[in-house]
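ok so I'm stuck.
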Amino acid sequence: MMNMDNAVRTDPRALHTPLELADVARVIPLLADINRADVLLCEWRDHDRAQVVAHAAPRSIASIYRHAMTGQTLAREHIQPLFRAMAERQYARGLHELLREKGANGEGPLAPTVQEAFPIADRAGNVIGGLLIETNLLESERLKRRSEVFQRTLNALQLMATRGEPRGVDQLDPIGEYDGIIIVDAERIIRYTSNIATNLYRNIGYAETLIGKHLDDLELKDGDLVHSAMERRECAQVKLEERGRNWVKKVVPLSRAVRASWLGPARAHLVGAMLLIHDDTESRQRERELAIKTTMIKEMHHRVKNDLQTVASLLRMQTRQMKTAEAKNALTEAMNRVLSVASIHEFLSLADTSVINLRDVAQRIIQQRELSVLQSEAHIKLVVAGPSIFLLARQATSCALVVNELLQNSLEHGYETRVAGGTVSITLHDFGDAVGLDVHDDGQGLPENFQLDQINSLGLRIVRMLVTEDLKGTLELKSDHGVTAAVRFPKIPLGGED
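replied:
not stuck anymore, here's the structure
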């Protein structure tokens, strides 16, 4: 079966009953992780039906369900322990054989699961639903071999969940597969440590057993953290650095009532706490290294952008010294190409990723054109239309050059015989797995017998090479109340190589 995210799947329409069901829904992700089981919160509809209002799946093992059960209706004949628990107002247990996914030969083999059910009563003592914990048989057998202290703690958490306790559990980070567990009694004496917790504390110098020690004897902040959480009867989480390691520590207070909530109101008394420990040192180190690398890369792009802009400035200065129009045009075109590539590095120097918005690039190229080269063509309007399209830097760089060349081509050839002005538009199209880029001018159309493969224009030859060889796309030029250059190319997936 596929594993599902253990974040609780809740159907808000089903939570119209008293608040107790919503309270329980916040607790069941913790319960699913600690039990290594699927937990279903159900609303009791009638004698034979119950609706799943929330479903939490374990993070460390595969869920027994392929899809979330939230919103599904359960029938008595399939989930007998649940209905027995709600009807008889007591804990119920049973074995259920769940059909696996259908295969080529029909239904798959049966997967035995252990079902444990608890009734849930509102504050007036009326049973309004039930909590169903479904564990695959292998995990259930493993649990039987675990410490008696751990099993009692698990039972306490299950009963607490039916009361919507503990408070603040929804503010805790999810429990990870490599989190250690320490269980202490009401006096904060350690009664249980998982193997992971033992190894984590051994790494910072605690070679002897921790069982029987008081938390304060560890000379860490664990004692104060647990004491504070138990005093407030509320879950707590802190991130701190101790003994050269970065820790995430979570506390879940444990309480037990003299009677179950569905048998009537009763004050619960503290019996201890569960301390969950996660060593976050390597993760923090990776984050720091990534931040340093990101900063260095952004600085590199910033310097490249500055260098390219310097080159463009030198070309602009050289253009002013040219005597012939042909030389001036050649240098101006070279300057625009350099500025187009510089715009990509400008975006990369500002962003935290290598993904660039093509619409922003096109808009930037137009702004550069309006500032530097449209003095004699100021009567021509340049516009960008279409959605934001995010591309990897490699594709965005090629697109920037394509936009620049097609824009230059429209301005240079579209309005040679017109003085009444016009509009050049860049329109983007997102086809999901492909991109469309249209550059349209409303100037004069293409010459008669125009053949793209026979052109001598350097700009269009550059465009054709970039589109066909780099972008692996197609280029089409057609007369359409002017000229439209239509570019189509497939996207590189954002997770692909840049």
